[in-house]
Amino acid sequence: MSMRSEVEKWVDQSAQLTKPDRVHWCNGSTEEYNGFIRVMLADGTLLELNSRTYPNCYLHRSHPGDVARTENLTFICTEKRDDAGPSNNWMAPKEAKEKVSKLFNGSMKGRTMYVIPYLMGPVGSEYSKVGVEVTDSLYVAVNMHIMARVGDVAMNHLEKSREFVPGLHSLGDLSPDRRFIMHFPEEKLIWSIGSGYGGNALLGKKCFALRIASYMARRQGWMAEHMLILGLEDPSGKVTYMAAAFPSASGKTNLAMMVSTLEHEGYKVWTVGDDIAWLHIDEEGQLRAINPEAGFFGVAPGTSVKTNPIAMRTINHNTIFTNVAITPDLQPWWEGMGNSTPQGLIDWQGRRYADSVEKAAHPNSRFTAPAKQCPIISPHWEAPTGVPISAIIFGSRRSTVVPLVFQAYNWQHGVFMGAGMGAETTAAATGAVGVVRRDPMAMLPFCGYNMADYFRHWLEMGKQIKKQPKIFRVNWFRKNSDGKFLWPGYGENIRVLKWILERVRDGGKAVETPIGYVPTPQSIDTHGLDITTEAMNELLSIDKDGWLQGTDNIEDSFGKFGKRLPDELWEEHKDMRRRLERSQ
Ligand code: GTP
Ligand code: SPV
Ligand code: MN
Question: How far apart are the C-alpha atoms of 441 and 416, rounded to whole Å?
């Protein structure tokens, strides 16, 4: 059977269940995109923004109860509960299907079903994979047009790759009571109903490229990670590639698009990806990364000409904004845009903004923009074989305890460092913000199987890589006793990347501490930076009690995995505690 008929068969089944009035197969063309936009402008799903300052840009306001990923309604449905592991919500596949097919039954009556074949990864890459999403949301369809390579290009890839990940999506009634984001990794299937937002609904992103892909990757010997990919150019013009895992809304897009404040010295950044990396080991034993996505679904608040001029230039044309505020002359606006609150602002829910307590833009408001519009997109961002990775960076928001940067002793210690990473929660998911939780490798909400097995996979991959990338931990978010950020962040993060590059090349000064190699204060280039010696010392200081408390938290977190947790990680844990206890 041809692959097209395989897809048709699944689409027919989905249509029998959801009973749409019409079925539209997407070809991925610009005409199709423009046609969809026209329909949404007519029915009010989109509002056209100022065509002079933001040409071909639109605003979408989502349902106020549907503004972020809902981790509590996200399930991994494996036959055995233990294969999903203690960090995932689990439901048996049979139960999940019975429960959710009732909701899908007739859910597209009176509506159109859009069939979206899409390719994750560069055209012509043996690492790329095909998904097919069917959805009754045009907002999802146009976002998928930007975020993935949609239509014929995917169908063509499929004829060779002969495998696709089906994803059934319907808006349902948008009630959280009837919202389920279901993953069936054993049959590589996604079912999502009741949300039209971001990672819940654009199934190529978190559902496929992370949860299902991580499961496939373990079986096939590669890795699917919540990582940005960047190239760091040095004064000689050589580019070194790094991949960095930070939790949601913790700085990946900003680091990936950073405008270096050391550009006059010859250090600059090239963007390869801002959210997801698929990592493979090539025939020479070199770790290589591709960005499976084709667009950016980035956090709007905090993005300004000062903090991220590259993002501002990427998103001022052909961009869809979701849940931002607008000015009376129809320009998008959000907190942290760098200007004062304009008169006559309309908030993200379409109300006149009067209140200075509530935010005008939702804290998780976003832009969807084509990656190729990024002025510093790497010339190799679509290289079929990806880019070679020399450093892996773990980062998260920690207002205390965690230094600006430090390096793991070796791969195994680095895996422990990632596995034990604590992170403050953000508005990217519903629930409390600012609570420290363990978020291993920034994958807690995105690993499609038991995380103990995921840690084992990291350890095994390390053994197969010939020249192991060095592993680092960064924290841009440490605060002083007044609650102010100690580190200026954004473009100044280049100073930390420069030290990382030096360490990759076996240079860069560091002291051996109980937590890893910490830079000496002088080894971070602070030339031209307005920062006090005290602040620098505090940023690099080791809070022994804080770290000991951290080892207790790691123990609780590791303990949940029982015997499945690799012994190596317990050894690393024991060693770190011993080093801390012995230190002054
Ligand atoms: P997801 O798209 O959810 O995966 O988020 P992300 O990891 O790409 O985060 P992003 O770069 O969008 O940043 C999230 C928020 O953190 C924004 O409000 C940024 O302004 C802020 N931020 C990013 N980098 C820094 C930094 O170096 N320092 C400080 N203080 N804030 C930062
Ligand atoms: C994240 O939450 O990590 C995101 C946004 O990148 S979403 O696509 O909604 O998952
Ligand atoms: Mn993300």
Answer: 10
